[in-house]
Amino acid sequence: MKDYAIGIDIGTTSAKVVLFDESGEVTAYHSKSYPLLAEEPGAAEQNPDEIYEAVVHSLKETVKKSGDKADRIGFLSFSTAMHTLIAVDDNGAPLTNSFTWADTRSEPFVMEAKENGLADDIYTCTGVPVHPMTPLFKLMWLKHESPDIFQKAAKFVGIKDYILFRWFGDWKTDYASAAATGLWNLTSLQWDEKLMNMANVTIEKLPEIKPATYYWESLSEEIGKGCGLGPEVKVVIGSTDGPLSNLGVGAISPGDVAVTIGTSGAIRTTTPEPILDPEGRTFCYPLTENHWVSGGPVNNGGLAFQWVHDLLEEKKNEKDSYEMLSKLAEKSPAGAEGLLFLPHLTGERAPLWDAQAKGSFIGLTLRHEKDDLLRAVLEGTILNLFDVYNLVKTQTAAEAEIKIFATGGFTQSAIWKQILADVFQKEVSIPENTESSCLGAVLLGRYAVGLTSQLHEVKEETKQYETIQPNKENREVYQELFRLYQALSQALKPNYKGLNEFQNKHKKESGQ
């Protein structure tokens, strides 16, 4: 019986491959990381061949760890990070690295679109906020900076498209990956001619768009033998990590809100039809034609905790140092003695959509101690997500019906989880399975190959193992603190451009 399935997640930092049984339990797992290349200001690239090798290696190792279950694997299904762009030649060989969502070198073209009034039209057409993460603007930048490469390119593709091309020899992309490029029309579900003209590309230079349920009937003999799988194993094209994470935690009904904090963070909800924000502050991507995921990504989640950890913790190599700092943060009261932290250390996506935004501590006094700084950082990341939540909750069910599902590395910190529950004043459910994108890919795959008739039927397979109750005593504290957070965030916003220019002009040389 082919009752096992594999989810493959091509993440920003690593490739993860997870084998699940029919009930959604993890039975084998392997991952392999790869570096992020930042050789010049604003750059955030990766080697596509390194990622390909990481995927194949992790798949091979997971199958090996599965033992006698390998013969029971019926299909593989993919998840991927959004907004990647690779230029390839006629043979499918990369002409560039993979430009990731974090690459901000196209910022001048974003500013131009905002200044000439095109930003609103782009958002309305695509559901993608206007930001340097978007391949639409990366294409403009590439044409300007490397016209020879731009001219030579036969295709412009994403990282998952590239891996599947090497497996099957044809260029295909899923709905959500296409949507994330900023070249896709959410009404027609096809590439948009006006946007392609803006990017100076033709439809021949883009992959063919397929629904997330599209699948190949069998693996090639080379890939199958190399990874220990039979040729009868199907391969589902899948979707992107955000929509699949919602599916993986069970947040696909009206009123379900998924919160993820890893290195970055996101907050998302699912609706039967696309919903856009009047001011273009939230994204809207398809999982299927009848399931649309809207919300907002933030740049600074666990990254902010890592920064303050490395800044304050002398024993950086101790495995439990993060836990020690979390315990220390518990000594500070809710509100961190009036110390606020704006967590925009690497610019910000939602809700500001400003690549030049800066982080800051506000309210520092002589009485503040290390525990207050730590708590302020943890609170600041949650207040930022709560700011996005206030946009998202208007797009879903009534406030009383909203349910919060949380995943990501932050769930290892007891105080961070409690702050989330207290700021949102909602019960927070933490799913048992932490690899929500991989599980979401498998659940989508089951629907794609006909093992379940409706996508929502698989929701019950995501088991909750922990719930965090909000502390009602902290309600007023965080309501007051959030009002200050919003006001100060807006007050500083007009100064980020000038501060960014000053920092670039007066930055210290490397090594000083």
UniProtKB/TrEMBL annotation:
User: What Pfam family is a match, any one?
Assistant: FGGY_C
Under the GO molecular function aspect, what terms does this record hold? gluconokinase activity
* Every Carbohydrate kinase FGGY C-terminal domain range: 258-448
The answer to whether keyword Transferase applies is yes
Domain (Carbohydrate kinase FGGY N-terminal): residue spans on this chain: 4-248
- Output the PROSITE patterns linked to this UniProt entry: FGGY_KINASES_2
EC number(s) per UniProt? Answer: 2.7.1.12
What SUPFAM superfamilies does the annotation carry?
Actin-like ATPase domain
Similarity-based family: Belongs to the FGGY kinase family.
Protein name, UniProt field: Gluconokinase
- State the species of origin: Fictibacillus barbaricus
